[in-house]
Please model this.
Amino acid sequence: MQAKISAIILTKNEAEMLPGCLATLKWCDEIILIDDNSTDRTVTIAEAAGAKVISFSHSSFARRRMEGKKYAQFDWLFYIDADERVTPALARRIRETIVQWPNLAAISFQRQNIFYGRELKHGGWQNDWVTRLFHKDRLVKWYGVIHESPVYRGEEVRLDDVRLKHFSHRRTIDGLKKTIAWTPKEAAALARQLKQPVTFKTILRKGLGEFWRRGLKHQGYRDGQVGLIEALIQAINRMLVYIQVWELQQKPPLDELYKINDKQVQLEWENAQMKQS
Model:
């Protein structure tokens, strides 16, 4: 009997990218959407394609991935994002692998990252391995706030001859939206770990370090202007994380400081009124 696969997609307002993703999942035996209160046509598009839609909102991507496992009918779970695309070659290799090694725990493959319409072959993006296919009984959990990772029991196989396409950073505004959504969570997690205070020097050093790593050490410049722009975006995001850590470290908290300032203005008005009376 052929092993069956449940595809699991986490969505929130993915009407633009979801149709292309769904079109590459017809080889799967069911598609499950874990939707986080989308306000666009995401749910309508998914249901029209025959997907099972589960409305579930949670700040943790790991928790939402585990929710997908709960509703999956079949033995193999394939996690994919709306901005990712499965090629026929990848689908074929996945099917072949789970038939050849039915006792596997997980399958990993590389992502082909397409930023601003061009594949990035340097800057560290060329070694983007992801583990996304699991035997349901051997997937223990997902963990992590932003960059969630799986825990599983058993052997993993890496498919080094096929890749998952990743259509990211289609427009700068899309990247900014992700920055707004993700950097506060990353900053909150980092603030709990850091013992030393974040200074301006720290913020600048982290940004320059990220640009050097992406643009120079890993030769992002070889991807031309797109590679350098992407290195700069990653540097800016890193600085924004540390700026928000600095915010969280302030004593008294920034909200309290604004209340103190607000109170001072109110006192000034009270004093002015007393002088007039």
Summary: The chain has eight helices and eleven strands. Residues 224-249 form the longest helix (26 residues). The chain has two domains: 5-168, 172-256. The two ends are 91 Å apart (CA to CA).
